[in-house]
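Homework help thread (please don't just give me the answer)

Our assignment gives two proteins as sequence + structure token strings and asks us to describe the second one. The first is just a warm-up. Here they are:
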Amino acid sequence: MGLSLGGIGVVGVLTLSPVGSGGPRQPACNVEPYNWFGDTPNVALFLLPAIFLVVATRSAALVAVLGPVGSAAVELAQYAFPELGRRCDVDDLLANSGGAVAGALMGAVILWSVRLAHRRSPVADASPRSGTPSPIPEYR
């Protein structure tokens, strides 16, 4: 859970820290998608925290929903506080959301593979004599 919270903190610092000289600015937002497929840094920004959150919460669906909601909150904050020197952008929203959903899918694959490996491990098999898990594999 610590890595998940650390990842969320990094996202907040990278997306909401002041840039430039600050000062009064007019709120501005780009609402026309241009090239969010090529926005690799924004995809990566939400990808790893999403993977860690899926592993921590064991819920890929929750992370797949919360990722885009979190990205929308960041873009809204960038619009609401123009003195930060940031500008909201629909391309960022789409790239961040894509990264979060991709991370949720990757996290789900990790959870699935761990469960599959656990089911196939000899330790997970019950001993036929006692009905309890045996730490030593029995060869049949």
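The one we have to describe:
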Amino acid sequence: MALIDAINLLASKSAIGVLEIATMLFFVARALKTRVDEVEPPVIRPPIPYVGHLIRSIREQPWLLTNLGEECRLPIATVPILKGKVAVD
């Protein structure tokens, strides 16, 4: 009986831990989501959610906006970077 009780206790604690982590990730993702109005230009989504454009901006520095403008082939677009936005033309 003691072994079954120990397994049940471990299972319940790990399930609670997984639920806590999932809840925390949900709220962090919701807090980092960039709000875009309908009147703003189309959004260029990063390949890695939330930090993709930030990582790319560190690598490409001054050429990021020029490269994004050429890649998306839109007259103007919105680039979300963390909680901020940048317009690219």
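TA reply:
I won't write it for you, but here's a hint about the kind of observation we're looking for: Helices lie at 2-32, 52-60, 64-72.
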